[in-house]
Specification:
It is built from 19 helices and no strands. The protein has helices at residues 2-10, 13-30, 32-35, 37-44, 48-76, 78-99, 103-117, 120-128, 136-144, 148-164, 166-176, 178-187, 200-203, 210-241, 245-273, 275-295, 300-328, 333-362, 366-393. Helix 8 (120-128) packs antiparallel against helix 18.
Length: 406
């Protein structure tokens, strides 16, 4: 407890808490269509491919909006950027409540849900901005644990949809986003870790560096896997095992909760053991567990167990990767984090679509799981190659923060 107290005193704890709450609410709204997928599929009589498209669009849209929001935050401030975004979320939810009447409207709503998905880089940079480098991993892990919002969406949205109708869930979300807006206004303050004299070229430098693209590809496994699978699982449990719509949401909640909570552990472990070492272990576990998930479609118990292991690894990997980001880009973390989050989350958008196509054309989801597992193995090879240069320039052995300049 003394160590955690020292951690909180090293930065601005109220901003950390406000950033976590903002990110949690945004994540929950981002995946709301996935949580309600069995209801939406039934209402619009969707094919597996149409369902995969519906689930992928919010992820793609949210991914593409992350970098522009991060860039905006460098100029108007991260706190102000969060408020602008939450106003956009509220407007989008009102569209969902009043205007979604067809499959085309549902796809348009998916694009608008992407506004909520844009929150990632700004939330992590705002929450961790006042903490010193030795605590960046834990601070980012705590804010990133706002992924737990996906678990609450999976738990609550099906129950609200069953009780009031799926349109009403958008209305509840429009009202709910007002709460983190008030919290952000009252408790958060802008950190002083931004370089006010940086040019646009300085801000977007990560786009032109191999490290930025390497981080993005690894993040396509860890966070892309987390958000893609969390969006896909309600449909998978409902279609594959015949559980009820509410039970499908509850099972998804268990997996998403596991991934969100282990993100904190991944950040803490990376501060002590190193982000590269942690990511190495994560990618091995992800590869094995994904193959086992694909092979256990006959047993609900085994499937849930393997998904829990997979999500635990994915969550820890998210925390580990974002322990490294502020070490590599200390004064432009919001932009770098947003770019990495954008490109990484795009990988997650491919998962529901590929799963739907796999089921529609082969009669099984295994091909989708196997492709994603092999991609994680390729990222492991790339990581071990890249870390040789990283640990000679901006990180200690294993990926820890340097105590003295390189």
């Amino acid at each position: 407890m003394t160590g955690f107290r020292n951690f909180l005193q090293a930065g601005h704890a109220p901003t950390l808490g406000a950033s976590f709450f903002y990110f949690a609410c945004s994540c929950g709204i981002w995946v709301i269509n996935g949580a309600m997928a069995p209801f939406l599929s039934e209402s619009f009589n969707l094919t597996p491919a149409q369902k995969g498209l519906m689930l992928s669009i919010p992820i793609f849209a949210g991914s593409l909006m992350r970098f522009p929001l991060g860039l905006l935050a460098q100029y108007i401030g991260r706190k102000n950027a969060t408020l602008v975004e939450m106003v956009g979320i509220a407007i989008a939810m009102l569209y969902g409540y009043f205007a979604v009447d067809s499959f085309g409207d549902l796809l348009a709503m998916g694009v608008l849900l992407g506004i909520a998905g844009a929150s990632f880089g700004v939330a992590l940079s705002l929450g961790s901005g006042s903490f010193p480098p030795r605590y960046k991993g834990l601070a980012m892990g705590l804010v990133g644990a706002g992924n737990i919002g996906t678990a609450f969406a999976a738990l609550l949205a099906p129950q609200l949809a069953q009780a009031f109708g799926w349109q009403a869930v958008y209305g509840f979300a429009a009202l709910g986003i007002l709460v983190p807006m008030v919290v952000m206004i009252v408790f958060a303050r802008e950190p002083a870790d931004r370089d006010a004299h940086a040019t646009l070229r300085d801000h977007v430098a990560c786009l032109f560096e191999k490290d930025g693209w390497a981080f993005s590809l690894i993040y396509a496994v860890t966070f892309g896997g987390f958000i893609g699978l969390a969006t896909f699982l309600p449909s998978y449990f409902y279609d594959q095992f015949g559980v009820s719509k509410v039970e499908a949401g509850q099972l998804t909640m268990l997996a998403a909760f596991m991934g969100a909570t282990t993100r904190i552990f991944g950040g803490w472990l990376s501060d002590h053991w190193g982000g590269v070492n942690t990511l190495t272990a994560v990618l091995v576990v992800v590869f094995i567990s994904l193959l086992l998930c694909g092979l256990s479609g006959h047993s609900l118990t085994l499937t849930v167990l393997f998904f829990l292991v997979c999500f635990a690894a994915l969550g820890a990997g998210n925390g580990a990767l974002f322990q490294l980001v502020p070490l590599r880009w200390p004064t432009t973390t919001a932009v770098a984090g947003s770019m990495i989050g954008e490109l990484g989350a795009l990988g997650g958008g491919l998962i529901p679509a590929s799963m739907g196509l796999s089921q529609q054309h082969t009669g099984s989801y295994f091909t989708g799981f196997a492709v994603f597992a092999c991609f994680s193995l390729v990222m492991l090879v790339m990581l071990r190659h890249m870390q040789l240069r990283w640990t000679r320039t901006w990180a200690e052995k294993g990926g820890r923060a340097r105590t003295v300049p390189a």
